[in-house]
Amino acid sequence: MLFLHLFWVYIKIGLFNFGGGYAMLSLIQEEVVERHGWITMQEFTDIVAVSQMTPGPIGINSATYVGYMAVLNAGYPSSAAVLGSLLATFAVCLPSFILISVIFYSFARFRKSRYVDAAFRGLRPASIGLIAAAALLLMNHENFIDYKSLLIFAAAFFLTWKCRVHPILMIFLAGVAGLLLYW
User: How do the domains of the chain map onto residue ranges?
Assistant: First the structure.
């Protein structure tokens, strides 16, 4: 029953996601932390951090981890937890795959339509709002922002924006700065 429930939750998350992985974070948090209690808020925060650093989309990476942890926390063996991670990952990708396939075949016919253009103009600000909601969601009492964090943020922002430091190098430098400032 857990596997079916996990599949259904991630089908919904994949289906109602607009704006990419960061935009889906608030929906994931609502479902897996608050509604079902599969993981804690601290685990969710850790998932977001690890998902940002690992290759691949954050939504898919987090689905893989949550699927594994939900099954493992339910008392199943780790081999079943691997199945849970595969199931959640497949479920979150399936709606996008189907929708993109349908859109691909339909878009050529309707791409000059004013209705299609209007729909895309409405989706853009909604996507930005969902990403902002995900950022605000991560600003909680478990993720206290102190002056050291603000210093790392300001340096990373400046180095990436003005000096064009590569994002992978920036992740490494921020990790080194964290080690030096918090150790």
Answer: 2-142, 145-183
